[in-house]
Amino acid sequence: MSHKTVRLKTHFLFWLYDRKGEKSGEMYNEIDLDKIDIHAEPPMEEPARQYYYMAKCREWVREFERKNGHRPCFFTQTFGCQMNARDSEKLTGILKKAGYAEADSEEADFVIYNTCTVRENANLKVYGRLGVLHGYKKKNPNMKIALCGCMMQEPSVVEKIKKSYGFVDLIFGTHNIFKFAELLWAALISERTVTDVWDGTEQVVEDLPLERKYSFKSGVNIMFGCNNFCSYCIVPYVRGRERSREPEDILREIKGLAADGVTEIMLLGQNVNSYGKTLKTPIRFAELLQRAEKIEGIERIRFMTSHPKDLSDELIQVMAESKKICRHLHLPLQSGSSRILKAMNRKYTKEQYLALAEKIRKAIPDIALTTDIIVGFPGETEEDFLETLKVVWTVRFESAFTFIYSKRTGTPAAAMEEQVPEDVVKDRFDRLLHEVQKIANERAQLLTGTKQMVLVEETNSRMTDYVTGRLSSNHVVHFPGDASLVGKIMQVSLDECRGFYFMGRATGASLSGLE
Ligand code: 5AD
Ligand code: SF4
What we know:
- The chain is an alpha/beta fold.
- The protein is built from 13 helices and 23 strands.
- It folds into 3 domains: about 5-205, Rossmann fold, CATH 3.40.50.280; about 215-445, pyruvate-formate lyase- activating enzyme; about 450-515, CATH 2.40.50.140.
- The strands form 7 sheets. It has a 6-stranded parallel sheet, with helices on both faces. A 5-stranded mixed beta barrel has the order 19-20-21-23-22.
């Protein structure tokens, strides 16, 4: 599928220079909204149109402040995956650019839920929280409530919200999140619910503001959507077809992040291994990684998620030779039974998965392999489940996310007969979790006593004078330190393994190039 990239007009560009004085990225967060004529007609091109609406919202915010004596505040709640977390940084960036202050609770003037619908539980949580929000809105008539994300791509959800939760002010989906400033403006001036959900898009809009949660690490979208149609999964229906960003745009963003102090990036996509295949000038994911690796200032590269069917030998080799790509690969297994894998439309067999895992472990001996497993897929027998356990015992994952199968309306699996009884699923889930945890602990134990490089992420909320950091393998370690270490890469001795995490002590000075 072709795609359209809409780039910022040159007159809006602000360049950021790195220490060598070379142009390294664009500071779109620096765009001066006061220079935009909000009384003129809105521009048609993106993202200039969105900056125009940000300027209009900012004027509204100033008026609010004049009337109420304080700035309006917002709260963003994110459900689901890393892609949603990254999208929420965009929402936050736009709200801040418009002048909103960030609140620390949902008792705010503007609350937005970025929803997930991958499993039913996520949906139920949103409906539950909406009841609470309604209570807040009764106390604060200025309050606006917005819903976006994957759940909103389901027509039945939007219908239900309109019928039973009429107090919601704004509903939009995953394809037009770039239009958030325009939609926010529409919601601010409207008394009725503003709804704008698109079926799909070919657009990739670049250069909108965003507010990173961490100063030193960042997600970077490399592609959107998914073409795989695993039979249980709703993602292809709510996130649309695969669209890759142009490599130049991605690399430009990473250079900008590096110049802004980011040392770790996480390349994000539903299936990063098929990145670039649909671009006019196709490029392989392994190639993109090699180009990203050359960017000065970036010390660590992660990526998420890989599909076993598309993981190439080239990628394994690039990872093995890389100094920057983290020793962690998330490789969803879903089931260890070839029969169930076929029904899931995963396009690999148990044997192929095992061969791939072995190949990876051999090529990169210090790799941490993690996975996703679903139990209770329709028709799963005890034998099928035992096959899954066998794969878990064989591969010995460093960690695994285990899920109870959730029936998603509209997916092929929802129509399959032989849905597995709840008590059987629960029993299998508990048995799987027990094995997964036991193995994860045993794997972690192997690292005890070693010294590892750790990126310090935060001060520890429970133990004063401790910080928490992450190994290249994604394991977590707590060790004595203070806020000055956050964002630095330290050498840490892993003195004690406590199941999934370590207690350690710093044994080497900061190696971050930020000093
Ligand atoms: N039920 C349970 N788990 C699911 N996942 C996706 N769809 C479903 C579903 N219907 C899991 C898969 C995927 C992870 C992100 O969520 O394991 O890898
Ligand atoms: Fe869903 Fe499969 Fe696409 Fe992952 S690869 S998002 S599980 S359809």
